[in-house]
TrEMBL record:
Residues 285-431 form the Recombinase domain. This is Recombinase family protein. The keyword Coiled coil applies. The chain crosses the membrane at residues 69-92. SUPFAM superfamilies: Resolvase-like. It comes from the Bacteria.
Length: 815
C-alpha cells in the first residue's frame, strides 16, 4: 500500500511547480489520508514489513501510526521546500516505486550514484558482502536470525553478491535500543578495517530501534567506512540517491513501533494485574504456576497460559526464619547473613551473586509483599536514546497506587512481626545515618569513628590463603573478610598487636642479625648504586647541555632587541624559549634530587645504619611504618590456617618474603628493576596465641606421659583433681584418642608406689634387726615380708644417709 500512497502524492505534485502549491497540496493529502484511515480503520500501508511479531491492535496503536504518517508528511514537505522542484518528485516516484516492489522483485536500480570519489569502482563480483541479523528475546524466536539471514542471502544472490559465512554478524536477544552490542561492535570494527563493502540488512530496524542511533550509524557506515547498505524489507539502497529521506522516515517508524510495543506490553500487564494473574514480579518466597485453559484468551502464535502467584513453601520457610531471627531472637543482619550462607539457604531467582549479603536480607525484611501488599509499577524505566542505557525513576505514588494489590492469601509473615522488623530497621538506619554519604553509601571507617586507623602497619598486606580475600581489621583483630559473611571457612582471627610484634621482631632478627642476608643486601645495594651512577649523571649532562643551548638562544634574542631591530614575533619567541628553559630546569632539579647519593658508594656501615633506621620505622604505628614494611616484603603476607597439637583452636601461619633487592631500592631511592640476582628470604611465622587452658592442658599431658599420678599433676597446676581429669580427657580427644581407664593406670602406678612404700616403711624395723645381727631370712620371717623387700630396705636406709650399702656376702661371713 505504501507505493500507492506515494503514487497518489507524486501524481499530484508533478503538476505543481512552486513550493507554496506543494505545501497546500500536502495539506490536502493529509485530510484525504485521515479520511482514508477512519474509513478503513487501518493504516494506509501494509505494516507487515516492520511489525515483526505480536503488535496488538489497540486504540493507542492507531493514534501512534497516525502520528507517524503526519510526521512523514512533514518530512516530505520539508524536502519539497528544500528543493521546490518537481524533479525531486520524479526521482521519488521512481525510487519509491522501485524500492517498494523490490521486496518481491529484485529489479536493477535505475539511477545509481557514483560512490564518494572512488575513481575505480570495483565490479560487483569483487564486492565483499556481509549481513547483520538481530532478534530481541521478547519478540522473536531463535530461528528468526536464520530467516533474516536467508532473506539477505537471497537478495545478495539476486544482486550478484555472495555473503561468506564469517561475514554474517548476529546479535541474539539484544534490544535494538542498545548501542553497545557484541555483534554490531564487531561489524563496525571490521567495516572500518575494510573487510567488506556491502552490508545486507533484513530490515532497518535490525540496525537500531532508535532514530538517533539508526541514522548516524548508517551514515557512518556509508560515508566513513564506504559500505553500501541494503535493507531488504524497506528496499533501501544507499547507492540510490535520496536514500537518506526514506531511511529517516523508516527509522522514525521503527522507533515508534518499539514505543507502541512497550505501551501495549504495559497495557497487557495492567490487565493481567487486574485479573489477579502474575506479572512476574514475585520475589523470594514465591513462584508462579500456569493456569490451564487460559491460553485461548491471549493472542499471538505461541500463546502461553496465564500464571498465578503461589507460595514456594521451601523458600517461605527461610523468609519466616529470617524474620524470627531478626525480630524474636535479636540476631543482627550480619549474623543472619552468616547463618544463611553457612546453612546454604537458597536464593532469589533474580539474584546475581552466589551468596547472601547484607542488602538482600534488608530487602527481605522490608518487603511488604510478605504481609500481602503487592505494589506494582513503583519505578519506571527511563532510557537514554543515544546509548540505550536504562535508569530507574520512581513513579509518583498517586500514579502507581492504583496498581497495588491486596493479597492476604500470599501472606508469609504476620503484621505484628513485620512492624517490629520495620522499627528495628529504622532504628538501625538512624544509628548509622551519620556514617552514610548523601546517596546512602557508607562512608567507610574514619579515624573519628574508630581506632582502626591508628594501627596500620599491616594495612592491606594480609591475604587469606584459602579465598584470596584480604584480612580486615575488626578493631582489635584481623579476620578474613569472607569469613564474616560465612562464605570462607577460615574463621580464625589474630590479635593485631601480637601479629605486628611477631612480624616486626622476626624482620628485625633478619635485617639486623642475619649475616648471609646482610651480605646479599649489601651486594644488591652496591649493584643498584653502580647501575644508577652510570645512568643518571649521563641524563643530567644531557639536560645541562640542552639548557645551555636554550640560554644561548635567549641571549641572542636579547641581542637583537638591543640592536634595535626586533622581529615582529619576538615576544612569542622569547616566551617560548623561557618556557623551554623552565621545563628543563625543573627536569634537572628532579634528576638531581633523585641522585641523592653523597658521592660515596654505600658500605656495610652505611647499610647497617639504614637498616637500623628501617627497623625503628617499623616499630612506629604510622603510615610510614606501613610503607617501610611494604618496601621490605615481596607481595603479600599470606595467612593460612594450621592445626596445633593439643589445641582446640586453629592458628594462622603467615608466609612472606623479604627481598634484599627491594630493600636496597627503597634505601637508595632507586627505581626498582628486576633483572639482577634476586635474593629473597622465605619467612613463615605461626601466630599462636596461648590461653591459660592451652598451657595447662599441655603441662598435664606432659606430666601424665611421664607417669605422674593425677594428684601430683593437680598439685603442680594448682587446680583440682577433676579439672586435671577434664584437661586430660580434652588432650586425648584432640589427639583423636580415648583416655585410658583411670583405675587400670592407678593400679599400675599404685603397685609401684606400694612396693616403694613398703620397703621404706619397714626400713627402721629392718635396720633394728639388722644391727642385732639377724639374717635377712629371719628378718623377713619375723616381719612377714619378702626377703627382697628386706634387701631393698637396707639399701634404702643406707642410701638415705649417704652410707655405703653393705655387701650381703661379706656380712654373712662376719655373722
Ligand atoms: Zn578466606
Amino acid at each position: 500500500m505504501l507505493h500507492r500512497f506515494f503514487d497518489l502524492k507524486s501524481e499530484n505534485v508533478s503538476k505543481s511547480s512552486t513550493p507554496v502549491t506543494c505545501i497546500r497540496q500536502t495539506l490536502e493529502w493529509m485530510s484525504v489520508l485521515t479520511a482514508t484511515i477512519t474509513a478503513h480503520g487501518r493504516t494506509p500501508f501494509s505494516l507487515s514489513s516492520f511489525s515483526t511479531g505480536t503488535a496488538k491492535t489497540s486504540r493507542k496503536t492507531y493514534s501512534g501510526y497516525l502520528s507517524q504518517i503526519l510526521l512523514m508528511l512533514v518530512l516530505c514537505a520539508g524536502v519539497l521546500l528544500l528543493y521546490g522542484q518537481s524533479s525531486v518528485w520524479a526521482f521519488m516516484r521512481a525510487d519509491v516505486n522501485q524500492s517498494s516492489q523490490s521486496v518481491e522483485n529484485s529489479s536493477v536500480y535505475p539511477r545509481r550514484r557514483k560512490r564518494g570519489n572512488t575513481k575505480h569502482r570495483k565490479d560487483e563480483a569483487q564486492d565483499k558482502a556481509a549481513s547483520y541479523a538481530r532478534f530481541s528475546s521478547s519478540l522473536q524466536r531463535d530461528d528468526s536470525i536464520e530467516r533474516q539471514q536467508e532473506k539477505c542471502r537471497q537478495k545478495a544472490i539476486s544482486n550478484g553478491h555472495s555473503i561468506s559465512h564469517d561475514l554474517e554478524y548476529t546479535d541474539k536477544a539484544v534490544s535494538g535500543t542498545k548501542l553497545k552490542r557484541e555483534g554490531l561492535d564487531r561489524l563496525l570494527e571490521e567495516a572500518s578495517d575494510g573487510k567488506f563493502n556491502v552490508l545486507y540488512l533484513y530490515s532497518l530496524s535490525r540496525l537500531a530501534r532508535e532514530s538517533v542511533i539508526t541514522m548516524p550509524l548508517l551514515k557512518k557506515l556509508v560515508h566513513t567506512y564506504k559500505v553500501r547498505c541494503i535493507c531488504v524489507m524497506e528496499g533501501i539502497d544507499t547507492e540510490v540517491t535520496g536514500w537518506e529521506v526514506i531511511a529517516s522516515i523508516f527509522s522514525v517508524i521503527h522507533e515508534q513501533f518499539i514505543k507502541d510495543l512497550s505501551e501495549s506490553v504495559h497495557d497487557g500487564q495492567e490487565l493481567a494485574l487486574r485479573q489477579g494473574y502474575s506479572v512476574g514480579d514475585w520475589c523470594f518466597g514465591y513462584g508462579s504456576e500456569p493456569v490451564p485453559g487460559t491460553e485461548q484468551t491471549r493472542s499471538g502464535r505461541n500463546s502461553k497460559p496465564r500464571k498465578v502467584y503461589v507460595i514456594n513453601e521451601e523458600h517461605a520457610e527461610w523468609v519466616s526464619k529470617i524474620y524470627t531471627w531478626y525480630v524474636d531472637e535479636g540476631y543482627s543482619i550480619g549474623q543472619i547473613v552468616r547463618m544463611l550462607n553457612q546453612q546454604k539457604a537458597p536464593k532469589d531467582h533474580r539474584s546475581t551473586t552466589d551468596d547472601w549479603h547484607h542488602n538482600l536480607v534488608v530487602g527481605i525484611l522490608s518487603n511488604r509483599k510478605y504481609i500481602g501488599i503487592w505494589p506494582w509499577g513503583e519505578c519506571q524505566n527511563d532510557r537514554d536514546p543515544e546509548t540505550g542505557k536504562l535508569t530507574q525513576e520512581i513513579r509518583p505514588e498517586e500514579e502507581s497506587e492504583k496498581w497495588t494489590r491486596e493479597r492476604p492469601d500470599l501472606r508469609i509473615v504476620d503484621e505484628h512481626t513485620f512492624r517490629k522488623a520495620q522499627e528495628k530497621l529504622d532504628a538501625n538506619s538512624e544509628k548509622w545515618e551519620q556514617h552514610r554519604k548523601a546517596k546512602g553509601r557508607l562512608k567507610g571507617s574514619s579515624s573519628e569513628t574508630n581506632g582502626r586507623r591508628k594501627v596500620r602497619l599491616l594495612h592491606g598486606l594480609l591475604k587469606c590463603a584459602k579465598c584470596g580475600n584480604p584480612f580486615y581489621n575488626t578493631g582489635r583483630r584481623f579476620q578474613c573478610r569472607d569469613a564474616k559473611r560465612g562464605i570462607c571457612n577460615v574463621i580464625t582471627s589474630v590479635q593485631i598487636k601480637d601479629v605486628e610484634k611477631m612480624i616486626v621482631d622476626r624482620i628485625g632478627e633478619i635485617i639486623l642479625n642475619d649475616a648471609v642476608w646482610f651480605d646479599y643486601a649489601l651486594k644488591e645495594t652496591k649493584r643498584c648504586y653502580h647501575e644508577y651512577e652510570s645512568r643518571v649523571p649521563a641524563a643530567i649532562r644531557e639536560k645541562e647541555r640542552a639548557l645551555s643551548k636554550v640560554n644561548q638562544k635567549i641571549e641572542r634574542l636579547l641581542d637583537i632587541v638591543e640592536e634595535g631591530d626586533p622581529p615582529q614575533d619576538l615576544n612569542s619567541r622569547l616566551q617560548r624559549r623561557n618556557e623551554e628553559r623552565k621545563a628543563l630546569q625543573e627536569e634537572l632539579t628532579e634528576l638531581r634530587r633523585e641522585c641523592i647519593h653523597d658521592g660515596e658508594a654505600p658500605d656495610a656501615a652505611w647499610l647497617k645504619e639504614r637498616l637500623l633506621n628501617l627497623y625503628e620505622d617499623l616499630q612506629k604505628t604510622s603510615p610510614s611504618a606501613n610503607h617501610a614494611l611494604r618496601s621490605l616484603i615481596d607481595g603479600d603476607i599470606i595467612l593460612e590456617e594450621i592445626d596445633i597439637p593439643l589445641r582446640k583452636r586453629k592458628a594462622l601461619r603467615g608466609a612472606f618474603c623479604i627481598s634484599a633487592h627491594s630493600v636496597s631500592c627503597e634505601l637508595k631511592n632507586f627505581a626498582p628493576d628486576r633483572d639482577g640476582s634476586e635474593h629473597t628470604k622465605q619467612i613463615s611465622i605461626d601466630f599462636i596465641q596461648s590461653s591459660r587452658t592451652d598451657l595447662q592442658r599441655e603441662t598435664a599431658k606432659k606430666m601424665y606421659d611421664a607417669g605422674e599420678p593425677e594428684k601430683n599433676i593437680a598439685v603442680a597446676l594448682k587446680v583440682g583433681r577433676t579439672r586435671v581429669t577434664t584437661l586430660l580427657h580434652e588432650a586425648f580427644a584432640l589427639l583423636g584418642l580415648k583416655k585410658p581407664d583411670g583405675r587400670q593406670r592407678r593400679w599400675q602406678l599404685d603397685d609401684k608406689h606400694q612396693k616403694t612404700l613398703l620397703h621404706q616403711s619397714v626400713a627402721e624395723k629392718v635396720m633394728e634387726r639388722f644391727d642385732r645381727k639377724m639374717t635377712y631370712g629371719k628378718i623377713a620371717k619375723e616381719l612377714e615380708i619378702d626377703r627382697n623387700v628386706v634387701t631393698e630396705s637396707v639399701k634404702y636406709w643406707h642410701e638415705q644417709r649417704g652410707l655405703p650399702v653393705p655387701d650381703g656376702r661379706s656380712r654373712r661371713k662376719n655373722l
